[in-house]
Amino acid sequence: MGLAMESLVRRAMREINRRELLSNAWKWGFGLIGVAGLVTTADMFKPRAVAGFGGIVKAGQASDVPTTDVKAVQAMRGYVTDVKDEIVALSWKCPHLGCRVPWCESSGEFECPCHGSKYNRLGEWREGPAPRGMDRYPVTIDDNGIVEVDTSTVIPGPPHGPETINEPLRGPKCGGSESA
Hints:
The protein contains two helices and eleven strands; from the N terminus they run ααβββββββββββ. By secondary structure, it is an alpha+beta fold.
């Protein structure tokens, strides 16, 4: 076995000279470095599933969405409510200057603390300097009754106009200015 291997090595050494050996070694070396570079950077180009804001957010059971109030969902940076058997997801960002618009329990409306814009439970503009109603997100309900909100798609709020739900103020306003 040893003599056969030795003759095979001698024959291979005769067929390749030093210059070819070094040339092939450099080519293989650069090739391996290139492959390693591609493998380590391939992760960058793969789209990843986004969880949380900017992707699909699970907002709880559809049966838990209030019909006369709103439910804040921190992960989607917004609110969900049920209006006429339709679940609506609202962004809590004011379309005027981007302030966070809290829900006022006592008045039953959204009240922007920055410049006093007011919105009904459906996010429709009532008063103030905002150019439109609150922005919305598309909503789907999966087979298990879980509300899924797609926060990667923002639907601009409705323009100024008549309100589609008739919900008068419940009581005193929480704060902000009384008019624009």
